[in-house]
Design a protein that fits this description.
There is one protein chain. By secondary structure, the protein is α+β, with helices and mostly antiparallel strands. It has one domain. It contains three helices and four strands; from the N terminus they run E-E-H-H-H-E-E. A four-stranded antiparallel beta sheet has the order 1-2-4-3. A hairpin with a 3-residue loop joins strand 1 and strand 2. Helix 2 crosses helix 3. The longest helix has 15 residues. The protein is globular and about 35 Å long.
Amino acid sequence: MKTPLKIETFREGLGVRCLKLTGFSEEEIQELAHCDYRDMKNRIVEIANERNSGIGTTWQCGYGIYNAWTHGNEVFIEVGVSCD
């Protein structure tokens, strides 16, 4: 079993929270860096669900994922701060 992703609040904005996710394998980072935007969001959800007890679905379906990008070995996502 892979270790859980580390999830940190990177910054907060008006209606969104930017989260920094670390703990991805080099292969996962490369995959995400070369994905289409929608595929990247879906893959982040899959990985987070596997490693962090379903949190990816909560982000995607409960709060909304509004943006996602990679920077080095880190992944950043912007999620809503309240459920719709």
